[in-house]
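Posting for a labmate who doesn't have an account.
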Amino acid sequence: MGDARITWYFSEPSVFVAVDHYRNKFIQKYSLSQLRPKGILLGSIAYFAGNVFVMGIMDGHPDIVAPLQGIFTDNLLYYSIILAVERSEDILNGLKSILENEYEQSEISDCFPNFDIFSSSVEKWLSLKERFSSQELFMIFVTSYTEMLTGKKMTDLSLKVIYWEPHLYDRAKFCYLAKWLESEGINGQTMILRRDNLARCASCYNYIRKEESALQAELALAFYMYREDYIKASHEVLLGKHWQIFAMRFEDIKLHPKEELSKICGRMEIPCCIRRSAEGPMPFWEVEILH
């Protein structure tokens, strides 16, 4: 959220989650079965440690809904909690107002290549009842955004796993995302992906060198050489009753994709299945691994 518009305290995720809990402590987080997913997997992945790589893999699994990273999906905690106080008929206009106040029109257009499709999907879900919890709004926004980008209609999330990796979100505060979304009966987990720090530095340097000057790339390299965003301890601060944490290595997934990704599927209780591609049937991860 824009720092110029709200105070630091009231932009803290811990405060948002606490307010949402107090405001909705007598209502169910997921009262509609079709908006209650089978599982939620948070990807806590440090910059240049495999974010895009893992997103491509998750997006290939037919039982995983993986909304593309961007300014909208990075801030779904805030948008969902803010708009949960509104009546259904006012939520979409409220979201438009927030986006227009926060971003330039060009940024909104880049993020929403077809806002009409997104709006139509949101309105379909909002017609189901008069008010929604913030968690249900999160599911509505994730589903509608994915529909807009993929063209695939979704009417029931009960057999789906939501993969969410808000790329620009502070990894040290992912515990509040888990606290917010967790619920009995939903398989909630956080995956911490680690990568050799030297390889991360090289990835960082190569990326920034393409976009900026050599000096800026060297400064960024110096920063990452002395920083390791593994932050496991921060996740344990607010570990909930219905949430688990596990760690994996980027290098292991690269070298042994079948074995390592089977572990993720097993934890999320979904099949390690075959996907359809232009080359014919293949494991859901293989397109991303090969390319």
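Reply:
Got it, the structure tokens are right above this. The beta strands are 39-45, 64-65, 161-164, 187-194, 243-249, 274-275, 282-283.
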